[in-house]
Specification:
Structural class: mainly alpha
Low-confidence stretches: none
Number of domains: 1
Number of helices: 6
Radius of gyration: 16 Å
Largest sheet: none
Shape: globular
């Protein structure tokens, strides 16, 4: 066992940070309004899509699940953008701050993945499982909440499905690769 910091430590840390932020913003009592939860989910899916795309392009060994998750998270972002509109998306995703974050994530992630081993990428996949679980936990109950408008329930259902795919494809179902 190697006690050194994993090569992909910063990428994994960024994913854990996003999972923690999402949980912090969506686990209050009372729960935040649905658009707030969906806005924060949009940000988390944006980060997850970027990380999955990085893995798809740079990780060795390459796994088909990376592209599947990148695509599903990307579709979730598009759908949430459509339902929330530009104002709420900017407010809860950070707008230009998020774009800069994604740019930095891609640059650092490429460097990390080019030097990584299978053990290093295991830290990233564990972080993706954590993020997928946090998204699933918050979004699944919203999908059946009769107090929400049908469009919000449908957006929550679609996002919860994408979160479940993220969670399971990165190993949250304990099935591994």
């Amino acid at each position: 066992m190697n006690n050194e910091e994993p090569v992909c430590g910063q990428l994994a840390a960024r994913l854990h940070q996003e999972a923690d932020a999402f949980t912090r913003h969506t686990s209050t009592d009372p729960l935040p309004p649905a658009p707030v939860v969906l806005g924060h989910a949009c940000r988390a899916f944006t980060i997850a899509a970027a990380a999955a795309r990085l893995l798809d392009e740079h990780a060795i060994p390459h796994r088909d699940a990376y592209a599947v998750c990148a695509d599903d998270c990307g579709h979730a972002v598009l759908a949430l953008n459509e339902i929330l509109g530009p104002h709420l998306v900017r407010r809860y995703t950070g707008g230009t701050v998020l774009r800069a974050d994604i740019t930095a994530l891609r640059q650092k992630g490429e460097e990390e993945l080019d030097l990584s081993t299978i053990e290093d990428t295991d830290h990233i996949t564990a972080a993706m499982v954590t993020l997928g679980a946090a998204l699933t936990k918050a979004l699944t109950p919203m999908a059946t909440d009769e107090n929400l408008p049908p469009m919000m329930r449908e957006a929550a259902r679609m996002a919860a499905d994408a979160a479940d795919i993220l969670w399971s494809h990165f190993g949250g179902d304990s099935g591994g690769w």
